[in-house]
Amino acid sequence: MEIVLDRLLRALPDFLVLIVSVVGQTVGLVWLLGWRAARAGGKIRLAIAVVGLLSMAASIFTFLLRFQVVARHFPGWWLGWGTGLSIAWALLSLSWLLGCAVLLICSWAIRGHSPARRRFFRTAYTALLAAPPAALAYGTFIQRHQLYLREQKLDVPDLPPDLDGLRMVQLTDIHLSPFLSRTELQRAVDMANETRANIAVVTGDLITTWRDPLDDCLDILAGLRADAGVFGCMGNHEIYAHAEDYTEREGARRGLRFLRRTAALLRFGNATLNLAGVDYQRKGRRYLAGAEKLVVPGAFNVLLSHSPDVFPVATRKGYALTIAGHTHGGQIRMEILNADINPARFYTPYVDGLYRRGAASIFVSRGIGTIAVPARLGAPPEVALLRLCRT
After folding, report:
1. Residues 6 or more apart from 104 whose CB is under 8 A from it?
2. Which residue in 37, 58, 130, 379 is a FRET match for 260, CA 20 to 30 A apart?
3. Domains defined along the chain, listed by start
4. Strand 300-304 versus strand 167-171 pairing type
5. Helix H or strand E encompassing 6
6. How far is CA 37 from CA 30, 46, 113, 355, in A?
7. Interior CA angle at 162 toward 150 and 279, to 5°?
8. Burial environment of residue 111 by CB neighbours within 10 A (0 to 12, 13 to 18, 19 or more)
9. Are 175 and 203 in contact (CB under 8 A)?
């Protein structure tokens, strides 16, 4: 029963997207046929109706592709790109619907029949049709590929002197899939190696679905180099793909140590860094159960957790630093009237970058890959280099 409920909860976001897409397209179709194309010929109206119905059928089909019983009959790329295109179309439909509603209200408020008014609304409708696809195209073909190195200074009170200046490089949310190529992942690994970090960490979501090339991902990650080793933790997509044990075993064979409710004591001069890791912590369950047993008194305790939501609990249990991912920095992110608008805000306050609670800190990386929509806006992909600094 718990497994069935978990699968239903995972399908809920896609189901909501499907509802938004179908409702938006239905309203748009009714609006076109009942007003904008009311005087058009019969063939044009029929063509509009057929395209609208095919679009809604495609949205329903791509939703069904997320279920293994359906997806196994189609090539793997259908699931990725089919879902991506469906969600992109849903976003565009919603943008156009809301924009048209706003312009319609404005046209009622600004009454008159002057040429200037007609030109204004003609230009506004043109901009409304062009802007959302242009923004999505920029996020898909340009910003999604703009990988860069993000350096973050972490001020730590009373940090042991031998840890001052220690460098940790982080890769997260790789999602090697039809949306991210092996070449792009190799580029990220090469960028990480150029930092000559003391520790390398991989904080989950190596793949997106069970059909993605996990072995290829592990092979490329095996090229990571760091003085004290390469460590990782499991993300939610390893759980969804039922690949946690396989990832741990095959990662170890390649020199990648995934910490699953375990810790590694790392010595740097006279100082000890205790690096602990946990599997993805699901919402609705008690966070970090038993993780306090991994804390080492007198050491600098660092927690690897894919989910950043655990930060307050990690702080109470004695971890001075938490390193997380999961949010993609919002992936599609806009600032409107000084408000940061992005999907991640709906489920966590820790979206991107450095956050503090007293002397403890968490760093949340935007990661490398994408899910749902193969686009990034306002949240470019990154390799993160964290530098500990004594204060």
Report:
1. none
2. 379
3. 2-141 (no CATH), 147-390 (3.60.21.10)
4. unpaired
5. helix 2-31
6. 10, 11, 21, 52
7. 55
8. exposed
9. no
Q: Which two tokens stand for residue 209?
A: 């679905």
Tokens of 181: 């190529």
Q: Are 176 and 217 in contact (CB under 8 A)?
A: yes
DSSP state string for 62-101: HHHTTSHHHHTTS-HHHHHHHHHHHHHHHHHHHHHHHHHH
CA distances from 274 to 81, 255, 364 (A): 41, 19, 19
Instruction: Measure the CA–CA gap between 299 and 39, rounded to whole angstroms.
Output: 76
C-alpha span between 161 and 168 (Å, rounded): 16
Neighbouring residues of 216: CB distance < 8 A, sequence distance ≥ 6: 176, 182
Mean pLDDT in runs of 10 for the chain (391 residues)?
53 72 78 71 83 81 75 71 75 78 79 77 82 90 96 96 97 95 97 98 95 96 97 96 96 97 97 98 90 96 98 97 97 81 88 95 97 92 98 89
Instruction: Note whether 353 and 382 are within 8 A (CB).
Output: no
Lookup result for tokens 């996020």? 139
- Estimate to the nearest angstrom the gap between the alpha carbon of 253 and the chain centroid: 28
Greatest Cα pair distance, the chain, in angstroms, is 83
CA-to-CA distance for 189 and 207, rounded, in angstroms? 16
Ramachandran area for residue 53 (φ above 0: left; ψ -120 to 50: alpha; else beta):
alpha
Calpha distance 222→296 (Å, rounded): 28
Convert 119-145 to b/e letters by CB count within 10 Å (16 or more is b).
Answer: eeeeebeeebeeebeebbeebbeebbe
The tokens describing 379, both together, are 């949240």
- Strand 167-171, strand 199-202: pairing: parallel
Cα separation, 351 vs 116, whole angstroms: 44
Strand boundaries in the chain, DSSP class E: 148-156, 167-171, 199-202, 230-232, 256-258, 262-268, 271-277, 300-304, 321-324, 334-336, 339-341, 353-357, 360-364, 382-390
The C-alpha atoms of residue 328 and residue 307 are separated, in whole angstroms, by 11
- The pTM is what? 0.86
